[in-house]
Structures are given as structure tokens and as C-alpha cells.
User: Fold this.
Amino acid sequence: MSLIASSIPGRLRLRDRALRDDARLDALGVAVGRWRGVTDVEINLRAGSLLIHYDVARLTPAACETRAVAATAKLLGSNARESVKKRTKLGADETVAQLDHPGGTPRVRVNRWAKRAMLTSLAISLLLAGAGSKRWHWLTGVVFLHALAAHLWVHRRHILR
Assistant:
């Protein structure tokens, strides 16, 4: 499981199973809350998640990600520290979100393709239906259903919870 669940300028979410411990998560939240530039810290014990809101003018996204990963590794101990280091090998111009897969993971790329295909085929299908072309309307509907199947396959674990 990746430590950084999401990162956009001004907002960083850390999530790990090891953070489902109340004492660890509280300690990390208190430590991060003291950083210069951090405006708010939200804790979700059930998910093992820490949401950090910060001022981009005072703390850059890359610096916040690096500090958060280091603080979490320090808190979790030496075993977790090695796995965190492996997950966060940053190049000169990389961010943590771009680590192993520059265009996203294969699941993200498939889902991105599926969503674009669904939108495109739906728009074309509606135009063709309005123009009265039943055969091409049917064909674009089939393309839409295939893209929907790919999208649902990517999210199958979340749908069946």
C-alpha cells in the first residue's frame, strides 16, 4: 500500500494500515500540526489516514511530501522505514505521486481510457440517434458498454463492498 494516497498543492493525504493505531496516528497528527505552513490536520483512525492542509506559499508540495514521509517512517520504526524509502525514491523533477508509473498505474491508465471512451461514445451515440442513424448509434452504444465494463472491472473491489 502506498503511503501517499493523494497529493495536490495545499492538501496531502497519508494512508497506511500501520496508522490505524490511535496513538501512532495522534502522535503523527500532533507532530505534523506543528510544522510551519500547516494550517489544519484531519485524522481518520478507521482508514488509517491523515489529511494535511498547508499553505503552498510557505511549504512546497514536494517539501511537504518529503517531510510527511520522513515523519511517518520515523514514527513507524525501522521496518516500515525501509519500505517507505523504497516507495519514495524521488528524482530531481519528480513528485511522490509520479513514483513508479509516470502516467499512473496500469489500473489508472485503463480507467482513464475507459472514462474518455464512455464520454466520447455517449456524445457520438446521442448525435447519431438524433440524426436517425440506427446502425451507427447501436455501434457506439456497444463501444460505450465495453468501456463501462472496463471501468467497472477497475473498480470491482469498491463496488462489491
The chain has two domains: 4-97, 106-159. The beta strands are 4-8, 11-15, 38-44, 49-54. Residues 81-101 have pLDDT under 50 and may be disordered. Residues 106-131 form the longest helix (26 residues).
